[in-house]
Every structure is written in C-alpha cells, then in structure tokens.
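[Automated response] Your request has been received and processed.

Submitted sequence:
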Amino acid sequence: MPSVKRQETVVCAMKSALSSREKQVLIELAKNSRLSDRELASKLRTSQPTITRIRTKLMQEGFLDRVLMIPDVQKLGIHMHAFTFVRAHNPAAVKKMSQWANEQPVVLFASEGEGLQNHTFVLESMHSDFSEYTSFVKGFREKFAGQFSDVAPFLVDSKSISKFYHWHTLIEDRVSKLKTVEWGEKKLSRSERFKQALSTLPNPLGGIPNPLKRKELDESAEPKTEINEK
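Generated structure:
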C-alpha cells in the first residue's frame, strides 16, 4: 500500500501532466476560447465527445477557469492604464486595501508584494482619462489616510500599449514545459490513471537490498556436499 506522501506525489504528477491531445486543446482554447467542441474537434481531427471530455477535465483540474473576453479598451473609452504602488504601514492596512480594491470596478488587479522603495501593495486600474484617475487616487488617499506613507503612480496611454494580455502566448509556452503523459484516446478511470502515474515514479526502496533475497542467493552459492550412502 503506497504511503500517504507517495499518493500525494502521484496526484500532483497527474495534475501537472497532460497528454499531447490535451495540450493541443488547451492551446487552441487559449488562442480562441469561442471555438465550439465541434469546431475544435474538426480543427484537431478528432471526435466531438473527445473534445468535450478533455474540456471538462481541464476545467475540473484547474487548467481552465472561465472564458474571458479581452476587449478593445479604446473603443470602451478607456485611454489610461494605471499602476499604483503603495507603501502601507502594516499588513492590516494592506488587508483593508485589498478588500476595498475588490469592490472597485475599474481595478483589474490588486495584490500585496514587495517593490522598490519598500512599496507593499499594487493596484492596476483603467480609466477614461487623467482626471478620472486623479479622482480615483484621491478617493484612495481619503479612505486610507494615515495608513500609508507613499503612493507612486505609473501611467500608460492606452495607445502606446505594445502587448496587452497575450494569455495564449504564455499558455503555449508553459504547456510546452509540462510533462506529457499519453493516456490514449480511451477514457481511463481515476484509479487507472493513478496506477499509470504510480508506475512512472521511482521505487523509493530501489536502493535497499532485500535481505531475504540475499539469503537465497547466498544459499544457492554454497557448494553442496554429496553424501554417499553405503
């Protein structure tokens, strides 16, 4: 019976490995998430049920979360992309800022971290113009007065953006680095996949000699003495 730690290792191996077909599906969905299962099956020359099964598996195992639409921000009247770095006084202040950021519709990303000049919190947001961003920062300063020592903006004109959330290139690069496991076109049960993954792991007892086996070898190597019956 495999140990709990070994079972956890196998499960991690299963979750971080994809078959060649699964990698192809993930890459194609990253390029165009609007593809239907039928269209994707035709593109990859496989059956629609196979694509449906793979898509479901990718979502269940966390490789896919949800389908996102990436808009043309200028057509939405957004002309400023802002990164705001904050030097908060303590972790409690950062937690409050994170909660506030989750309620702001213009905030795309917010996280604690470490940066230049000891900044500990970052906000990424989008605005129609500089005036709107100024109002945004003013509201932040008023909300958290006395809980930070510095707010440093980095502002980007949306017209100057050279690369905007190219998730498909990142996914294609990372997928190429994942371990490939060929499960075949046949649908395998979780126990069957577990056994296959287990068989690929090294035996932790491989370097330890078996004393019983050694005893058998020693006995076979001893010269046999023949007794002549008279």
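Summary generated for your ticket: The chain has two domains: 4-68+167-200, 73-160. Strands lie at 17-18, 80-88, 107-112, 121-127, 148-157, 179-180.
If you did not submit this request, please reply to this message.
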